[in-house]
Amino acid sequence: MAYPSKIILIGFMGSGKSTVAEQLAPRLGYTGREMDSIIVERSGLSSIPEIFEKHGEPFFRTIESQVAQDLRNVTTAVVSTGGGVVTNPSNIENLRANGGLVIFLRTTFETICGRVTDISSRPLFRDGVQARALFEQRASVYEGHADLIIDTDRKTAEDICSEILSHLELRS
Ligand code: S3P
Question: For ligand 1, is residue 124 a contact (CB within 6 Å)?
Answer without folding.
Answer: yes
